[in-house]
Amino acid sequence: MSSEHKSRKAIVEIGGRLHERGFIAACDGNVSVRLSRNSVLVTPTAMSKGMMKPSDLVIVDMTGRKLKGRREVTSEIGMHLLIYRMRPDVNAVVHAHPPTATGFAAAGMALDQPLVCEVIIGLGQIPLAPYGTPGTPELAETLEPLVPQYDAVLMANHGVVTYGGDLQSAYMKMETVEHFARIALTTHILGRQQYLEDEEVDKLVAARQKYMGVNSAAPMPVQYSTSTPAARTKGSRHSESSDVLSTLLRS
Ligand SMILES: [Zn+2]
Fold first, then answer.
1. Distance between Cα 27 and ligand 1 center (Å)
2. For 102-128, what is each residue's pLDDT tens digit?
3. What do you get for the CA distance between the two ends of the chain, in Å?
C-alpha cells in the first residue's frame, strides 16, 4: 500500500499510458489502488482516463461508499472491490478495453494456448469470464470464480481486467495481455498455431517460480497432451479446458 499523494500521481500517469496506447477510448476504463484496509483510490466516472488531474480521483470504502472526492466514482467499482476482497495480495486494479484482446473477448475466445514462453512465465493463461452487464453486480459475479487463480481476465464482449501487488505490475499485465493477443491474432491470420510441448511448459513453470516467487497465482496454459505440435493447427485449438485446468500446477 502506498501513500495517497503518490498513488494519485501514479493513477493519473497510468491513465495517460492506457489512453496513449489506445487501450481505452472516450471515458472507458478504470484504475484503482488500495490505500488502506478500508479505503481505495479510484478513477471517476464520465471522464477520459487520459486527461485526469490527481484531484479528480475518488476515495471509497470497501462497500463502495464515497469517502472523499468531488466527482462520482466509476460504475465498475464493484469489480475492483471484489478483487481486493478476494485477493489480499492485490493492491492495484486496471480495467481497459484494448482492441485486440477485447476482440478475442468479443469472439468468445480465451487466450489460453501455450504459444509464447514469456507469457507463460509472466501470466500463465488468460481466461474468459462470461458477459455481465457493466455497472451491475452481475459483472463482479462473472469474475468471482476466476479472481483467486488468475491475474488477468478477459471479460466477454467487454474488455480486460488485470491486477497485482502494485499499480506498475497491474498495468504491465495489461500490456502483456494486449501484446499477446496481437501475437495470437497473427497466428490465426497465418492459419496455424504451434503450441509449446508439455515438457517445455513444465520448464517454464519452474522458471516462473524462480522469477515470480510464490505470490504469483495464475495457472499455466492448458497442456495439450493428445496431439503432436505439428497436428496442433487451427482446427484443434478449442479442446480440453476446465478439466485440464483443475489439474494444472500452481505456484
Ligand atoms: Zn469497461
1. 9
2. 999 999 999 999 999 989 888 888 999
3. 23
Report yes or no on 210 lying in a domain. no
pLDDT at residue 244, rounded to an integer? 31
Q: What are phi and psi of 36, to 5 degrees?
A: -155, -175
CA distances from 158 to 78, 134, 226, 229, 240 (A): 16, 8, 33, 32, 24
Distance 158 CA to ligand 1 centre (A): 6
- State the total domains in the chain: 1
Span from the CA of 74 to the centroid of ligand 1 (angstroms): 10
Distance between Cα 93 and ligand 1 center (Å): 12
Q: Which of 20, 72, 76, 200 is catalytic?
A: 76
Calculate how far, in angstroms, residue 43's C-alpha sits from the geometric centre of ligand 1.
12
Would 102 be classed as within a structural domain?
A: yes
Question: Are the beta carbons of 34 and 91 closer than 8 angstroms?
Answer: yes
Phi–psi pair at 152, nearest 5 degrees: -150, 130
* Residue 213, in any domain of the structure: no
For the question of residue 4 being annotated catalytic, the response is: no
pLDDT tier for residue 40 given thresholds of 50, 70 and 90: very high
Q: What is the CATH number of the domain that holds 165?
A: 3.40.225.10
- CB-CB contact of 194 with 117 (8 Å): no
State the residue range of the domain holding 40.
Answer: 4-190
Residue 46: inside a domain: yes
Instruction: Kindly state the helix (H) or strand (E) to which residue 128 belongs, with its residue range.
Output: strand 128-129
pLDDT for position 242? 32
CA 97-103-107 angle, to 5 degrees, is 130
What does the chain come to in residues? 251
pLDDT (0 to 100) of residue 171: 98
